[in-house]
């Protein structure tokens, strides 16, 4: 209050100081002076001279211009300066040396200088690039600006562009023809074209030149080289072009370049390659796996595997027909077919990569050629199996035999006449079982199991029945051995009898074989028959003399060399040999009257005893043929180190007559099957035209048959009044109930 009083009651005054800001003024000629300094620097860089000013001062000058909104003007001035320099440099390349390599070196030098200069300029004008260029959406970076200017003037300098592209193509052509070229030079110039956006112009001309080059070279090589070497040449060229892409071409060029190579080297010559080379390669396939694999891979590139598949089918059919149709090869045909199949399976995996289409082609080809001779392959396969199961084949042990039978089953699947195989297999199985010639019961059952799996139980019912008969026969013989009838004979006879009781329906039909059974055996037969019929009333036993065999004790040799031997012979041979117990010499007529055999069978049996390698009896006069006037003597002089001697048995030898009879039986069975099929179809359809009936029969029948054969059976059924022809339409059949 005292203060207010002193001042008369007024508050003190406040002083306000205000500073007026004035916009700083750029020095006069600031922009021009700064640009002059920068231009001097740019000129020095373009002329490859040292820059006298420090880069820091130059950078600061660019920054100042940009800060004071002079960026646009600076950019335009710099672009004009660079463009003028680029134009002068490219103009300097016009009308330069005609040597492509020297010209390309000059072009590379010009490009390298441009890149280095623009890199230096960009580092000086970096502030401009980072501010004005970024803020202006329609302005490209300094580096991009340099590329655009370079491209524009290169396109305007037609001579430079033309010579650059031509020079590059020349160097690549030289490299393809074997010359050494500067790959680094080519690589750098192609990168230049890529950077300038001109690579597509080069690529078009390059692909066109490549197409022309390989078109001409392929035609020349096909004339000069065989197919394996031509394929090696193609493989090498593909590798070279792949390396070329990796070294200096743009990666995007690979696909169109490879397409050109495939078209000119492969696609245009597929037919020539396959026709000229495939069959010769297959002729030496074991040594040519790599070549076949190469052909598969290369032709697969141009979608031409169908050509190889067709050629493979043709080769297999041609080779197979030559094998099957040649009757002189029948002895080894199955072995040859197995080897051929094994080779093709190996090629399928190693050369053709297990291609399923190729596998189907092989299967179809085998089915065609193996049935050229309709029934013979089936017969030969059955005989081959017989040889293996008798232990005289290729299978050295059970494992190998099993593998071999699996391979045989593959051939079995291809044959159409499976009923022919069944007939011969059944006949041979009967001989193996009855004559004790089977090498392995397990192998026998394994084979039947394979057939059952392949064809069903109806195919193997009779075969399994044969084994069942053998087992039942063993039980019967055990019971017979313990019977009183057998016991009463033991003291009277000096012989043993082993009998197999066979069910007629299971076993092959055997014709009656007359034989006067020797007294020593007749009593045994009568005793067993009495025993068996007492156990199985209503049954009838028919003795099959042609299947009998015996072991005969014989004293052979003279003086000190006289020894006891065991002769393994057939029942026929046994009956003849026992006659010599009462006489040292017998005439043909005496033997014939005594044994009661058919003349043909008698002569064959006498030949096996008197004319073979083992001569138990001798014939007078000597010779290989047996005649009615011949006389026979027991051969006391026969000597052998072996105690057990196997005399060649005619039972094991397959005769043509037997083969023909088996085949005839098959044909007869087929007729019954055809008749049954016709009746079955007509009973269901009542009325059917001839073409439709034939078509239905082909679907039902599982063996090869011709329309002519079917027509004969239809005519037969019409004669037997199972069918009749329609009165109005002769080609239509009606079923008669």
UniProtKB/TrEMBL annotation:
<dbReference type="InterPro" id="IPR001373">
    <property type="entry name" value="Cullin_N"/>
</dbReference>
<dbReference type="Pfam" id="PF00888">
    <property type="entry name" value="Cullin"/>
</dbReference>
<dbReference type="Pfam" id="PF26557">
    <property type="entry name" value="Cullin_AB"/>
</dbReference>
<feature type="domain" description="Cullin family profile">
    <location>
        <begin position="376"/>
        <end position="610"/>
    </location>
</feature>
<dbReference type="InterPro" id="IPR016158">
    <property type="entry name" value="Cullin_homology"/>
</dbReference>
<comment type="pathway">
    <text>Protein modification; protein ubiquitination.</text>
</comment>
<dbReference type="InterPro" id="IPR016159">
    <property type="entry name" value="Cullin_repeat-like_dom_sf"/>
</dbReference>
<keyword id="KW-0597">Phosphoprotein</keyword>
<dbReference type="GO" id="GO:0031464">
    <property type="term" value="C:Cul4A-RING E3 ubiquitin ligase complex"/>
</dbReference>
<keyword id="KW-1017">Isopeptide bond</keyword>
<dbReference type="GO" id="GO:0006281">
    <property type="term" value="P:DNA repair"/>
</dbReference>
<dbReference type="InterPro" id="IPR036317">
    <property type="entry name" value="Cullin_homology_sf"/>
</dbReference>
<keyword id="KW-0832">Ubl conjugation</keyword>
<keyword id="KW-0833">Ubl conjugation pathway</keyword>
<feature type="region of interest" description="Disordered">
    <location>
        <begin position="1"/>
        <end position="23"/>
    </location>
</feature>
<dbReference type="InterPro" id="IPR059120">
    <property type="entry name" value="Cullin-like_AB"/>
</dbReference>
<comment type="similarity">
    <text>Belongs to the cullin family.</text>
</comment>
<dbReference type="InterPro" id="IPR016157">
    <property type="entry name" value="Cullin_CS"/>
</dbReference>
<keyword id="KW-0234">DNA repair</keyword>
<dbReference type="GO" id="GO:0031625">
    <property type="term" value="F:ubiquitin protein ligase binding"/>
</dbReference>
<dbReference type="GO" id="GO:0042254">
    <property type="term" value="P:ribosome biogenesis"/>
</dbReference>
<dbReference type="Pfam" id="PF10557">
    <property type="entry name" value="Cullin_Nedd8"/>
</dbReference>
<dbReference type="InterPro" id="IPR045093">
    <property type="entry name" value="Cullin"/>
</dbReference>
<dbReference type="GO" id="GO:0006511">
    <property type="term" value="P:ubiquitin-dependent protein catabolic process"/>
</dbReference>
<protein>
    <recommendedName>
        <fullName>Cullin-4</fullName>
    </recommendedName>
</protein>
<dbReference type="InterPro" id="IPR036388">
    <property type="entry name" value="WH-like_DNA-bd_sf"/>
</dbReference>
<keyword id="KW-0227">DNA damage</keyword>
<dbReference type="InterPro" id="IPR036390">
    <property type="entry name" value="WH_DNA-bd_sf"/>
</dbReference>
<dbReference type="InterPro" id="IPR019559">
    <property type="entry name" value="Cullin_neddylation_domain"/>
</dbReference>
<dbReference type="GO" id="GO:0005634">
    <property type="term" value="C:nucleus"/>
</dbReference>
